[in-house]
Amino acid sequence: MSKHNWQSRVFGQSTDLNFTSTLLLPAYAGKIGLHEARVNGDGSVTLESRGGKITGGHDGLLYYYVELDPRRESFVLTADVFVENYGREGTNDTPQQCGFGLMARDTVGPARREPYDPSFQEIPAPSNMVYLGLFAGNRDENVLRVTRRRGVYDPGELVGVTLDHLELPFETRIVTGGQGVRMILGRDEKGFFAAAETENGLLSDPWYVPDCPPNLLEQQDPDHMYIGFFASRNAQVRFENIDLRVTDYIPPVPAPALWMPVNDSVKPTLYLRSGTVAGSPDYALTLQGNEDGEVDITMNGIPVGTVRLAGETPAALAVSLTPGENVFDCLYRFGQETLREIFTVNLREDGGSAGELYAAPDGREDGAGTRERPLSLSAALGRIDQGGTVVLMGGDYAEALAVTPELSGGLERPKTVRPAAGEKPRILGGLALGGCFWHVRDLEFTKTRNLITGSFNLVENCVFHDCEETGLMIGRGQPAGFNFAWPSHNTVRGCESFGNIDPKHMNADGFAAKVGVGPGNVFESCVSHDNVDDGYDLYNKVESGKSSPVALWGCVAYRNGIWTDPADRSHVILGGGGGNGFKVGGEGLPVGHVLEHCVAFQNLMAGFSDNFNPGALRVTGCVSVDNEQQNFIFRDNPLTAPAGVYRDNISIRTAPSDWPDAITGDVDGTNRLWQG
After folding, report:
1. Where does residue 298 rank: exposed (0-12), middle (13-18), buried (19+ CB within 10 A)?
2. Beta-sheet pairing, 302-309 with 293-299
3. What residues act catalytically?
4. Residues 105, 242 within the same domain
5. What is the residue range of 326's domain?
6. What is the pTM of this model?
7. pLDDT by residue (tens digit) across 553-570?
């Protein structure tokens, strides 16, 4: 090994010890929580990681590295790499954020607190970087790739940062327990490059990584770059014949331009929230803006009225459509500025109904929409007008209940989907609710994931079970950082979600509102149980931007992280990445979610977990009983002063536990924590 000053460090999120993905089966229980870099007698180095993550915006790693000066030193790092374990021992599960390889990065996060403190949050560690190795997404084919992250200038602002997994121009495979593969990662005046031993045993030519100029790692800390080996989540890897060659570096003049992320999340915007297709002239034009102001509206060149917009609350104007295209010219006036938007609404010649249209599993596209001659589900959804109702006959619907934005209802004139009296329809194709102002009630959804990406919807008294992903999720807002455009003001009331399991055993929650969630979303009186991941997941990605607070009122979560096969009750699968009752945050972004009178018991992880959310949470009147880990875990952190407010909460243990509760913030004597 080279004579440089090698050191190891564990840093970043998920490197603590209370994640089910790092908890091993009983035969391997002695390895729980191990993060270790071992220099072996023959000079090789073994990295064994039991935590961390590789995400779009930041990392948690076990890193064995040296420090170099990026303005004066180039390098070539070479090693023979042997994979001793990749993924959770004793299973075929691989957490999605697992990885290992040769890495170069421009920052290293603060070392994880030792000894481990369960009441402390590890912080995100965002860095520009390039590495040659594996990540979980390519575990099945075991093909090496180069991973590149660009655009990290401010560790607190990661919207628009990109993480790309790039295919090499040659193919190299590396398998667990197989022979080693020689890998090379380097930098010179032309940029960063990678090489590896191919399947014919020959070393490839160096491949310069696209858009990785030599100054890539000078953005956050121009005085240091860090070169070495890493392992993340569940990996044990041995590096032999390590060679680090450092040479003089002469920076190119002028310095290559660096990629800059684009974040236009705060620009003034006017949205049409009602549909662009109608079947009858009676229409409520519904607008929403993100600035207080007024909108002057003309229709087909004729002034028809003005609406007042305030506080992102939509407003409607009743108009009478004419056949064909109706062009609305909207002049949005706010402060001293104006914004002009043009929306087109088409009045179909074939008409529609603001009353009831019947649909059936064997309904026809050209049906009449009556009980005797029902439509197909998609045809009924397309023909119902504002204020109308799609009535579903009993049976299994293979197609999705899919609503696009063009089929949106209107303010105070929602569209409804419900069962016919005495009938039990079951939707196998999933819910894809991308429109606004819909009321979906009293339906059963199974097999396929269900997603709300629209706004101002009500999903009520529905059951979601045995889905291959989360039972019901609000989120996946686009574009990144543009909170106003994300799904907002949706209410999920009186629903149940259970028995959901995904192939990797780590993503199927009961309910979720995550990865791009706008304001005003509510879960009320819902029950989530026996899902392989979390009961309620409010996860937030730093590269997506901060979500708005979500409210959970009177909701229940039990036995999450523990999936039982309905066909064989003795077949039980423990979640590979979660199992909290209520997971209310993610990745260090402060979001003030509200939980009132919720109950969690017998979940695989915590009953209530902040999941690295340092925001001003409000948790009131909640009860948590006999969860496998903490009943309540709301931790201190190095980013902000604890800001949560906790009142009238009860924690009960009927037997002693090794996982004491931790609540930091505004906590008074109204909370009762009985630890058995």
Report:
1. middle
2. antiparallel
3. 583
4. yes
5. 270-347
6. 0.87
7. 999 999 999 998 888 888
